[in-house]
Amino acid sequence: MDNYSRILGCLLGTAVGDAVGLKREGLSRKRSRRLYGGPPLSPDLFLNRGYCSDDTEHTLMVGRALVLSRGVPEDFERRLGRDLKHWLLTLPAGIGRATLRSCLKLLVGVAPQNSGVFSAGNGPAMRSALLGLCASSESHLQELVLRSSRITHKDPRAEQGALLVARAARLSLTEPGQSPREFLANSVSQIQDAELKSAIENAVEHLARQSTPEEYAHDQGWSNGISGYINQTVPAALYCWAYTADDFRQSVENAVMLGGDADSVAAIAGAISGANLGVEVIPGEWKQQLAEWPRTIAWMESLAECLSQMDETADPQAPPPMHWLATIPRNLLFAAVVISLGGRRLLPPY
Fold first, then answer.
1. pLDDT in tens, 186-232
2. Which Pfam families does the record associate with it (predicted)?
3. Is 219 marked within a binding site?
4. Is there a binding annotation on residue 261?
5. What are phi and psi of 246, to 5 degrees?
6. How many domains is the chain built from?
7. 54 is in an annotated binding site
8. Residue 350, in any domain of the structure
């Protein structure tokens, strides 16, 4: 498998995971099943088409910043901060509180290294898988994750969760003979936060017993759904990936069916799975249903090509533009769809 396949697998894995989970975002596990049923799932938010949220947009901004900076951490942070300012001006729907506050600080001139707020939300984790594939070494990866995280979230727990996701995404690249369960077991000694360490230790034990993701979540006390807290989102996504490491579709569906922050958990699980298995494993019908615009599948393919050339050429091609002006009407339409979806949730079955 070449690096292009891994990178595009990560980008599209994020996008389709995000799109499949978005319809059930914020619903408990039980209400999700009552409203929309169970698997098989598809990205069918509106008119049988799938759309992406900030999980995908942040990943694409990270990719552009990597290409434009050639992976130089200081320049990467500056460019990512600039794109986050532009992104806020396009009126994105469903933006998290910590990310909103941080982007507002960027907008009034606060430097990216100082713009983050003390929060352990899952924002850094939803955009970190790509860093795992593009970092040249472990020390480089740690520096990139630090700079990507602190732009919006300064709580060390957010950075630790994001780093674990990035390391998982590069497993088949750096440790091709290691299983996901072995990876998680070996990661325990590297985790400083006691709560995250305990969740990963429990994940390793449940994987050994072949517990389902729902059984693991129930044992963790997350029966009503996975929250946007980093120490729930990251272990849940990692478990869904590790439980069916060779089955991209099943990993994403299991993540969505846990309930709660379904799009973020599924986007992270999809990013890790796609990065390790390559783009070929992503279901063709899911890609066909993805109606994301202006950053289409062809746009993502172009970005993946740029990223895959970073270490091969002295002057890789420029990444595709974000099309910020076109994003504004897209986001207004997206917000209208989300509002109508919220109205449907007021109706039975409860």
1. 999 999 999 999 999 999 999 999 999 999 999 999 999 999 999 99
2. ADP_ribosyl_GH
3. no
4. yes
5. -100, 10
6. 1
7. yes
8. no
